[in-house]
Design brief:
Number of domains: 2
Order of helices and strands: HHHHEHHEHEHHHHHEHEHHEEH
Number of strands: 7
Number of helices: 16
Radius of gyration: 25 Å
CATH topology of the largest domain: Rossmann fold
Largest sheet: 5 strands, parallel
CATH architecture of the largest domain: 3-Layer(aba) Sandwich
Length: 360
């Protein structure tokens, strides 16, 4: 019975089962981990029971007894450490690790009815409505305290008594997806802020024939080691602290994408859809460009066609590259395994956007 429960919890796919809950598969829900914890504790009790009746009570001696005496304490320690790491969160780009799924479950809150990490929208509010549109940088991937997220900082700077800032950030979103979500959003903007990152062109670039090179996560693991590291928390945590081959490289990809006139034309069409929503609502549009945080100069050169185009369309273009360069590299990102913008960069974004808004 215990073996079946073990397979059910750790290898559900072998039984044709998947756990479906809000946030899955990005989030590793705590109640699932509680069930795993109980199973481990029951297994520990069974190991100790067997050890007592097989080795201690009969006072067994010999090679087998010695092996049991050495391995059982080690096994107990490993299981206890495994239980501890079932509750250790660590933000990870792409939510690749078990620790990042724990992080997501703990910190990705609140989530409103539209699946945004934000408060519920109120269409008839008499406050000035500011919509922040973007991807994981806007959503605050890796940001534990929302007081450190740029949309929340901006609302406080503008004054929450007069302004309400709604966050329309979704991890993995690109410009076309952002346009579609903005068009469906129940609140029309009085001010629209588009957060832009160099990979926002990815979908149209792929449609234009470009492809990313790189290895898949866990592709360097073979045999039983692959399944152990992918499914168990302690080995998974150790694995992700080690260096790995980059899973994808954007440098060559974006360089080609932003110099291909056909791809750019399609990308501009998606940007136009966003600008049209702003124009139809009579809302000024601000675009804050987030560069690759360790390659700010290159990023700005890549995305210059987009910033120039948006400026020509009447959008206010905001660059934060110069300010980012003044921050120590380790303080630009949220963590070792996560290259998303840290609190210091989020505060810079909010400050620059705020200054741009109030100066108009």
């Amino acid at each position: 019975m215990m073996a079946f429960i073990f397979i059910f919890l750790f290898y559900p796919d072998r039984l044709g089962i998947s756990f479906d809950y809000a946030g899955a598969p990005l989030s590793d829900r705590v109640y699932v981990r509680w069930a795993k914890t109980v199973l481990w504790l029951l297994l520990l009790a069974e190991i100790l029971r067997i050890f007592y009746y097989v080795i201690i009570k009969p006072r067994s001696k010999g090679l087998i007894a010695n092996i049991f005496t050495l391995t059982v304490p080690l096994l107990i320690v490993l299981i206890l450490i495994e239980i501890v790491f079932m509750y250790v969160p660590q933000s990870h780009e792409g939510v690749l690790s078990k620790a990042s799924q724990i992080w997501w479950d703990k910190y990705w809150q609140p989530v409103n009815s539209l699946n945004y990490r934000d408060k519920e929208p109120v269409a008839d509010s008499d406050k000035i409505k500011v919509l922040v549109l973007g991807d994981s940088f806007a959503a605050g991937h890796g940001i534990e305290n929302l007081d450190d997220r740029f949309s929340d900082i901006l609302e406080k700077k503008l004054g929450s008594d007069k302004y309400v800032v709604y966050n329309l950030g979704i991890s993995g979103s690109d410009t076309r997806d952002e346009a579609e979500r903005l068009e469906k959003y129940p609140v029309k903007p009085d001010i629209l802020i588009l957060q832009y990152f160099p990979n926002d062109i990815e979908r149209v670039a792929r449609e234009g024939g470009l492809s990313l090179s790189g290895t898949e996560p866990y592709s360097d693991l073979k045999g039983p080691l692959n399944t152990v590291i992918k499914r168990f928390y302690l080995p998974n945590f150790i694995y992700w602290q080690l260096p790995h081959t980059a899973f994808s490289t954007f440098e060559d990809f974006v360089q080609k994408a932003y110099t291909d006139s056909t791809i750019l034309a399609s990308h501009f069409n998606d940007l136009n859809r966003i600008k049209q929503v702003a124009d139809s609502a009579g809302a000024p549009m601000y675009t804050v460009f987030i560069p690759f945080l360790m390659q700010t100069e290159k990023s700005e050169s890549y995305t210059k066609p987009v910033s120039d185009y948006l400026a020509q369309q009447g959008a206010h273009v905001i660059s934060i590259a110069e300010e980012i360069d003044k921050i120590e590299p380790k303080d630009r990102v949220v963590g070792k395994n996560d290259g998303h913008a840290g609190p210091k960069v989020n505060h810079i974004m909010a400050e620059k956007v705020y200054n741009s808004i109030v100066s108009k």
